[in-house]
Design brief:
The structure holds 2 protein chains of 2 kinds.
Chain A (H helix, E strand, L loop, with lengths): L2 E3 L4 E5 L4 E3 L2 E3 L5 E8 L6 E7 L7 E2 L2 E6 L4 E6 L8 E9 L7 E2 L3 E6 L1
Parallel strand pairs in A: 2-12
Antiparallel strand pairs in A: 1-4, 3-9, 5-6, 5-10, 7-8, 8-9, 10-11, 10-12
Chain B lengths: L4 E3 L2 E4 L5 E6 L6 E7 L5 E8 L2 E4 L8 E4 L6 E5 L8 E8 L6 E2 L3 E5 L1
Classes of the chains: A mainly beta, B mainly beta.
Amino acid sequence: AQTVTQSQPEMSVQEAETVTLSCTYDTSESDYYLFWYKQPPSRQMILVIRQEAYKQQNATENRFSVNFQKAAKSFSLKISDSQLGDAAMYFCAYRSEGGNTPLVFGKGTRLSVIA
Amino acid sequence: NAGVMQNPRHLVRRRGQEARLRCSPMKGHSHVYWYRQLPEEGLKFMVYLQKENIIDESGMPKERFSAEFPKEGPSILRIQQVVRGDSAAYFCASSPMGPGYTFGSGTRLTVV
């Protein structure tokens, strides 16, 4: 079974600075998807970014980018120019390729943004 | 497109009562997933349904929990004889074919 580990329960960053959230995963599969979700106090799960394992190029969405290291099974999220609205829980998630398979989540990292 | 609608947003039940959580998927989505989030935890998969079929219920507790997704109407997650340990946020997500998921805002169940 796949597992996802987020080793940083809490992180903080100064407004306008850059922060990196760590995620590692364990799988024997070669094709899969990786995701970062943001969960603000409203509880809504918001997709931040998605990476297909077969793509070597790291995904980028505006201020959010990932460092995907397939051999190391590492999938970190970098948030640049941090804003107060970035404060939230961030969850890393894994999904097998093929069919409609469920997501496997890490325990999350609580990000605080300091003005 | 209203997104994935879950109701109620908050639900309080006394121990031993039944809880019914509803999820209406996005228009055009025929796949529904239920997840549970305990305090300070990530979401844990419970069950995956298509219309009138349970595809994967490997994450469902064996007793007291059931789910359905009828031909007409929302998907229902039912918890019978609730206990304090059932207190959690329950999320529904829907998808078309493919990897894209859309989550609802969740139902927070509190058992008193």
